[in-house]
Specification:
There is one protein chain. The chain is α/β, with parallel strands linked by helices. The chain has three domains: 274 residues, inorganic pyrophosphatase (n-terminal core) (Alpha-Beta Complex); 97 residues, Diaminopimelate Epimerase, Chain A, domain 1 (Roll); 124 residues, Beta Barrel (OB fold (Dihydrolipoamide Acetyltransferase, E2P)), CATH 2.40.50.140. The protein is 43% helix and 20% strand. Strands 11, 12, 13, 14, 15, 16 and 17 form a seven-stranded mixed sheet that branches. A five-stranded parallel sheet has the order 2-1-3-4-5, sandwiched between helices. The radius of gyration is 25 Å and the shape is globular. The protein starts with 7 loop residues before the first helix and ends with a helix.
Length: 570
Amino acid sequence: MTYQALDLKAQAIVLRYAQRRRIDAAGLNDYLSPKIDPHRWTLPDADKAEARLRHAIATNERIAIFGDYDADGITSVSILLRFFYECTTLRPSWKLPDRRNDQYGLDLTMAAKLVAEFQPQLLFCLDNGTNSVETIAWLRGLGVEVIVVDHHPMVSRAAEAVALVNPAAYPDRPSGDLTNLCAAGLTLFLCAYLAEAWGCRDRWDNVTATMLAGIGTLADAVRLSPTNRAIIKNSLSLLNSQTALERCAGLKALVPADGQRISQRRVQFEIAPPLNALGRLESPTPGVELLTSDDPVKAQNIAAHCRALNERRKVLQKQIVEQALSQGQEQLRRHPALPVLVLADASWLPGVVGPAASRVAEQLGRSAILVGIDSAPNRWKGSGRAHNSDHLGAWLEAVKALGMVERGGGHAAAVGVALRSEQIDQLRGIAPHIVMPQTSHHEAESEVVGDDNELSPAEWLQVFDLLEPFGPGNPAPLLHFGNAKLVSAPTELLLRETGKPWALKGAFQVDDRSLSVVWTDVDRGRSIWHPGARYDLELELTARPYQGRMYFNWSVSNCAQRPPSGMEKR
């Protein structure tokens, strides 16, 4: 569906949404159908990386690539490996950390492993390395040079890398919105730079690279700057092309082949999570093998394993969320103004607590750090997620300065921590007394874009498909339903595993229409949903095809009870 194919009312809604993003009518086409332009901004140190790689090719040096265990790290390594295979004679070694045994990033222990296993002369760090100052200096002492391609902000001083391809590390350079790229996006742009410099654009499969970069970008939940929107938009278009998928056996095996459109939501819930599940529960290594293999049978087997792991992850995550919510509610009863919930249980897998922390922060309205037991005795490891405008990364830096954690780092929205058993109670004790910094650029995750009766549900979905992707900078659309009457007592939707409610289902009357909605905030729904009462609803619309029909699903984002009609008259 194109903008021109919409009726005039739908076009006006699209234009209104764009104008709130400061996009006028003249720029609307570029906003809705953006082009990837690697030359729009200068990629820092790309020239240094190109010169060093040119020397490595000429002298046939040993190169190793070190990535990360999440989807951004997996796709970054896959993009770079495929580029080397397609455009050079180099065949780099590569390695990803194992969350169960390794720390995040390039520390001295991991560097020693890489040197012992690969004896590299040149090491690529993807999605890490910016703050590995001591480690990179140690490697230089051994004669190993390092190229860093990373998006994490610099904490102290620059590492002695031969090239630091990280726009976030150079706030004074004119890198434009490249500072918002994740590692996969940066790797895509670096490969485009190298393909141009080396005259190998005809050999480089930038179609597959773009699809991979889009998956990594959506998985990393970075800000939807114009460049990130262009990467995701083009990636989604290609993921819906069978011709494009034929280029990569791994993507063809991973992408659902059900004939339904691959949307942003499907990437975030059906494609990226199976990749992430590898690093959460086992080794992430098969993820790179999947995305670089030409063997359809091998790809199908790995993809099936990814999906099976993701189903296991879902079960574990539900259990962790349930236990963490109970802990968090108890902490808030004792300290209602607590800025951060520190939740721990020896049975929680550190690789699963990250997405669980997101659910806890969302449901309890408070930033949350969840930790589980690490492989070493007396060691705990976990992740935190911020609520709204909380700058959890800055809060953690203050905690680190007090010696309350052994290791920790991250950014405003998400952090990782490692600590000893005794530090858990210390952290809980100090948490009420450390002020939570606030980000200056927090943006709403969602936005009401219109009233439900302006368009039919099918037409609204066409508008949403045109406006996606949604995320920071491009809020998810909600529809307003005014004066909706709850016609009967809500029913509970129960988890199959535990029999406990995960949502309430309510039947409403809106004018002369019936509407069924689901609300996952069970406690609030129980407290304010009363048969016969009227409400103003803000709902998220999704759709699910089944047996040739399209079923529309409505989920509550916000709900406000209206005063009784007698009070309205007064």
